[in-house]
UniProtKB/TrEMBL annotation, chain A:
Residues 6-118 form the Misato Segment II tubulin-like domain. This is Protein misato homolog 1. GO terms for biological process: mitochondrion distribution; mitochondrion organization; positive regulation of mitochondrial fusion. Gene3D superfamilies: Tubulin/FtsZ, GTPase domain (3.40.50.1440). It is found in: Cytoplasm; Mitochondrion. One of its GO terms (cellular component) is mitochondrial outer membrane. Belongs to the misato family. The keyword Cytoplasm applies.
UniProtKB/TrEMBL annotation, chain B:
It comes from the Eukaryota. Keywords: ATP-binding, Chaperone, Cytoplasm, Nucleotide-binding. It is found in: Cytoplasm. This is Chaperonin containing TCP1 subunit 6A. One of its GO terms (biological process) is positive regulation of establishment of protein localization to telomere. Belongs to the TCP-1 chaperonin family. One of its GO terms (cellular component) is chaperonin-containing T-complex. InterPro entries: Chap_CCT_zeta, Chaperone_TCP-1, Chaperonin_TCP-1_CS, Cpn60/GroEL/TCP-1, GroEL-like_apical_dom_sf, GROEL-like_equatorial_sf, TCP-1-like_intermed_sf. PANTHER family: CHAPERONIN (PTHR11353). The gene is CCT6A. GO terms for molecular function: ATP binding; ATP hydrolysis activity; ATP-dependent protein folding chaperone; unfolded protein binding; WD40-repeat domain binding.
Length: 551, 531
């Protein structure tokens, strides 16, 4: 489309979504900063897709995420709901009352050191024009309880929407079930709030391409997300709605109730989101969606603690930052609707994600790809089991952060070519040819970018064996943390979903739901459940692999 | 040893006296929190969150929603009280206070050995009596503007300071009178409440028309048009991919261009239709033409419209579409096929107001608007919220009065800075009646004492004065909260909703009865979905 960026509105629903979102915005923010050494970044990605320019009442220009965020009462910790950008200290103190006044103060939440640096530099950049953020020392990461502890981006006052009805922590008043979440957006108050905020962001967009919803699938927020997607579909038909369903990795078997609820919420969430959005992709570091937990996925060259949401969300945000590239490109972007159309033909609205973080970059691309051999090059991030052997129907692949010099093989002419990949003239061709080899029957689209993924602090220190530019080091780990890394990410609709979704439905069928009456009490009825199971089965049927009629 | 203990050794059990003590203390705890709020002289509460966010309120309903209530009994009472607000829009604080007071009285008798069942029968009997009394004292009046103003004032004075309350009172009553249709129920939805962070709270006003919180998105469009035609529609004026799942199939770039052009043409035709109509109705006159569209309008279409001097607003809120036609007249169009001059609404003045990055469009001077806007102004977010809550309650109070057609002069917590009062009881504190105990309905006692306390008067003295005055005059008497002297409520224009009080009596008796009859509290099993 000529002129102007194709805007996307981001919605973050839930606390884990907040974690992933905070990392994602930190990464976007880091990418905005031009490096001090004068090297112009390639500028392949257009930040205007995600950000909006605004102006405060005092005439100060702002650049804030086009974001709506929902979380529960008590989850903000030290972050102010209205943000710091548009505040006026003098006016805020004015009180419209002359009578007696009593003040009830909650204990002030201590600010994290990173936020203190953000607060002190409010509105002003440090002298060299670059934000300097202290990295979070290893071991102290457990002290991060909420996402606002490490968010270093200023938000627009319309971004944060608190749900006062439920508590973030404590024993009572939790948002636990799908039905509870759905009913929140049936209340006129919250619905109006959401509509108003959406309206604010959407009205100013010239070429809105769609919405991305980051939502928790494991708790009641799956219901909120389902309702939101329904609203978006109704109100803004023709726009893309891409839902990223997030699941924090470890779940303990110790609490059967939580586990069952997680399963139910996930199933309801997936089915409803698939019905109302263009594309749904579950994202998790866990091994499976089912009742029995499988060990979380492991990455070579990456050490993380699966019990820390801070770590898990960082990895998922990095993957997200890569696989969303197609619709954030500056030149010839693939719009959300097109991306969704390509991946979701004949009802396959659920897709899986995978990523290699970091992508090995010591040698040329053809060499690396040949070394991978026939194995799936990326680690699955959708809790859908092992994708090896599964057939892929369509995929959208992004490789970013490799030097142009590494794109093609640098063999001296005359040497015999180890593989056809080495004959390609450009990196794009190498990638396309590789995908063609791997999945000859799949519809593939690929993007190759020079821009790496930013992993500057407060991103956790996960890559001990990488240099600052993300190259592998043979020597002992250095002190300096990597600041950007190459990442290889993919979205594919694969036949492994047949197993996963079918398995989920079978597990739910086996459950005796009368034992979990409280889930039903929250607004979901037996009929809804049966209908949902039917839809889950037929969704799974879409992924039936033509060759394998095992079950 | 409770039986449940043998099944689940972790279970916690409280029985008989202990259970009652737990419940009563919860009710009284809640009462203590809210008692200082009551009445126009009550204390405003400022809630400061951990991050420093401020919430300022005096409204029991808002407070109960803000508090994290962990105690199950307290949370039960809070739910009943807030449910009362959901239904009638008022009476939350009174509800909590009365339940607390009933239980306090009951506690005294129980400690003397009376069985709770007898006390609950007393409650029931007292309720009947109180309702009878309510029937006696209610006044059927024609709901003229002055009466409604009295009702609204009674409600609003308890929520915000007097100067502001007077401003709001007029605005609230006039807005209801504007949207009210003969013999039809009032739809409060037709009063749009719009916030504007600007100036001070007393600048809040009623706009006889509509205020939209967005403006035209084209630099050449006029900021102000007079005597305008308003076209309300829900038609897409932007080029987008067709909604049906279909892809473009084309061989070359030129072919693609051609297809895109054909699609664009479709939109252009729509824009031209609007332009034609504008030319037809406005001719060469100075009249304005405003398009308000629920769907999007892309920059090309905006440009085309701007050239013709048409002001176009895109993405109007769905809920404003109905209001727009009610305010300006005309019909909301879903397709431009049946576009003609009859579909247009009229407004005397349409102008845009810019505030930082936000734009507001005022549509005013409509003929006989059936939908109006209350424009709330205030310097900061918490003031805006406070006024919004107050206005909601004020609107409800006026609506209740019109719906009931009857009002009471027993303004519980009420009113006006100069002459604030409270009615005193007709019932003696309690009386023995066929061996049942009838508690007085202590709305009376508790409310008047709390009110007097909140205003800083001596309790006993005030009560004695009021009783004397009542005996003398035989009229319903309250307390002037400024002087501490008794006065006749009806003369001072203190009127309250009949349905609120009725609901109040019903719900607090039921809850107090239920709580009183609990003789065992168990906590066992799965902790989930409670509260």
């Amino acid at each position: 489309m000529a002129g102007g960026a194709r805007e996307v509105v981001t919605l973050q629903l839930g606390h884990f979504a907040g974690f992933v979102g905070a990392h994602w915005w930190n990464q976007q923010d880091a990418a905005l900063v031009r490096p001090a050494d004068g090297k112009e970044p390639p500028g392949e990605l257009c930040p205007d897709v995600l950000y909006r320019t605004g102006r405060t009442v005092h005439g100060q220009d702002t650049y804030t995420p086009r974001l709506i965020l929902m979380d529960l009462k008590g989850s903000l910790s030290s972050l102010k709901q209205e943000g710091g950008l548009y505040r006026d200290k003098q006016l805020d103190a004015a009180i419209a009352w002359q009578g007696k006044l009593t003040t009830h103060k909650e204990e002030l939440c201590p600010k994290n050191p990173y936020l203190q640096t953000l607060g002190s530099a409010e509105g002003v950049l440090s002298s060299d024009g670059v934000w300097r953020v202290k990295s979070i020392p290893n071991g102290k990461e457990g002290s991060i309880r909420v996402w606002s502890d490490f968010l270093r981006v200023h938000l627009h006052p319309r971004s944060i929407c608190m749900i006062q009805k439920y508590n973030h922590d404590g024993e009572t008043g939790r948002l636990e079930a799908f039905g509870q979440g759905e009913s929140i957006l049936k209340e006129p108050g919250y619905l109006e709030e959401l509509e108003d905020r959406l309206h604010f962001y959407v009205e100013e967009c010239d070429y809105l391409q769609g919405f991305q919803i980051l939502c928790d699938l494991h708790d009641g927020f799956s219901g909120v997300a389902a309702k939101t997607a329904e609203l978006l579909q109704d109100e803004y038909s023709g726009r893309g709605v891409i839902a990223w369903g997030l699941l924090p990795a470890p779940y303990s078997l110790g609490e059967p109730q939580k586990n069952i609820y997680r399963l139910l919420n996930t199933a309801f969430g997936l089915v409803h989101l698939a019905a109302h959005s263009s594309l749904v992709c579950p994202l998790s570091l866990g091994g499976s969606l089912g009742l029995r937990p499988e060990p979380p996925v492991t990455f070579p060259h990456l050490h993380y603690d699966a019990t820390l949401p801070f770590h898990c969300s960082a990895i998922l945000a990095t993957a997200l930052d890569t696989i969303t590239v197609p619709y954030r490109l500056r030149s010839s972007p693939v719009s959300m609707v097109h991306l969704a159309d390509m991946l979701s033909f004949s009802g396959k609205k659920v897709v899986t994600a995978g990523a290699t973080i970091p992508f090995p970059s010591g040698q040329s691309l053809p060499d690396t790809l040949v070394q991978l051999g026939g194995a799936t090059p990326w680690i699955p991030l959708s809790a859908c089991g092992d994708p090896s052997g599964a057939c892929c129907f369509a995929q959208s692949v992004v490789l970013r952060g490799l030097d142009r010099a590494c794109h093609t093989s640098q063999l001296t002419p005359g040497t015999p070519l180890p593989s056809p990949l080495h004959a390609c003239a450009t990196g794009e061709e190498v990638l396309a040819q590789y995908l063609q080899q791997q999945q000859p029957r799949a519809l593939s689209s690929s993007h190759l970018l020079l821009t790496p993924c930013k992993v500057a602090p407060p991103y956790p220190h996960l890559f001990s064996s990488l240099s600052q530019q993300g190259l592998f080091l043979d020597g002992p780990p250095t002190r300096a943390a990597a600041e950007s890394i190459p990442v290889f990410g993919a979205l594919c609709s694969s036949s492994s979903l047949h197993q996963t979704l079918g398995g989920l439905a079978r597990e739910l069928t086996k459950l005796d739901l009368r034992r979990w009456a409280s889930f039903m009490a929250a607004g979901v009825e037996q009929d809804d459940l049966e209908e949902m199971l039917q839809e889950l089965y037929s969704l799974a049927q879409c992924y039936q692999d033509g060759s394998g009629l095992m079950d | 040893m409770a039986a449940v203990k043998t099944l689940n050794p972790k279970a916690e059990v409280a029985r008989a006296q202990a259970a009652l003590a737990v419940n009563i203390s919860a009710a009284r705890g809640l009462q203590d929190v809210l008692r200082t709020n009551l009445g126009p002289k009550g204390t405003m509460k400022m809630l400061v969150s951990g991050a420093g966010d401020i919430k300022l309120t005096k409204d029991g309903n808002v407070l109960l929603h803000e508090m994290q209530i962990q105690h199950p009994t307290a949370s039960l009472i809070a739910k009943v009280a807030t449910a009362q607000d959901d239904i009638t829009g008022d009476g939350t604080t009174s509800n909590v206070l009365i339940i607390g007071e009933l239980l306090k009285q009951a506690d005294l008798y129980i400690s003397e050995g009376l069985h709770p069942r007898i006390i609950t029968e007393g409650f029931e009997a007292a309720k009947e009596k109180a309702l009878q009394f309510l029937e006696q004292i209610k006044v059927s009046k024609e709901m003229d503007r002055q009466t409604l103003i009295d009702v609204a004032r009674t409600s609003l004075h308890t929520k915000v300071h007097a100067e502001l309350a007077d401003v709001l009172t007029e605005a609230v009553v006039d807005s209801i009178l504007a949207i009210k249709k003969q013999d039809e129920p009032i739809d409060l939805f037709m009063v749009e409440i719009m916030e504007m962070k600007h100036k001070s709270e007393t600048d809040t006003s009623l706009i006889r028309g509509l205020v939209l919180d967005h403006g035209a998105r084209h630099p050449d469009m006029k900021k102000r048009v007079e005597d305008a035609y308003i076209l309300t529609c829900n038609v897409s004026l932007e080029y987008e991919k067709t909604e049906v799942n279909s892809g473009f199939f084309y061989k070359s770039a030129e072919e693609r261009e051609k297809l895109v052009k054909a699609e664009r043409k479709f939109i252009e035709d729509r824009v031209n239709k609007i332009i034609e109509l504008k030319k037809k109705v406005c001719g060469d006159s100075n009249k304005g033409f405003v398009v308000i569209n629920q769907k999007g309008i892309d920059p090309f279409s905006l440009d085309a419209l701007a050239k013709e001097g048409i002001v176009a607003l895109r993405r109007a809120k769905r809920r404003n579409m109905e209001r727009l036609t009610l305010a300006c007249g005309g019909v909301a169009l879903n397709s431009l096929d049946d576009l003609n001059a009859d579909c247009l609404g009229r407004a005397g003045l349409v102008y845009e107001y810019t505030l930082g990055e936000e734009k507001f469009t005022f549509i005013e001077k409509c003929n006989n608007p059936r939908s109006v806007t209350l424009l709330i102004k205030g310097p900061n977010k918490h003031t805006l919220t406070q006024i919004k809550d107050a206005i909601r309650d004020g609107l409800r109070a006026v609506k209740n009065a019109i719906d009931d057609g009857e009002i009471l002069t027993l303004a519980g917590p009420s009113l006006e800075s100069k002459r604030l009062l409270m009615r005193y009881s007709l019932f003696p504190r309690c009386e023995y009646f066929n061996s049942h105990i009838i508690f007085c309905f202590c709305e009376v006692n508790i409310n008047s004492t709390v009110l007097a306390q909140n205003s800083g008067f001596d309790l006993q003295e005030t009560l004695v004065k009021v009783q004397a005055e009542h005996a003398e005059s035989g009229q319903l008497v309250g307390v002037d909260l400024n002087t501490g002297e008794p006065m006749v409520a009806a003369e001072a224009g203190i009127w309250d909703n009949y349905c609120v009080k009725k609901q109040l009596l019903h719900s607090c008796t039921v809850i107090a009865t239920n709580i009183l009859l609990v003789d065992e509290i168990m906590r066992a099993g799965m902790s989930s979905l409670k509260g």
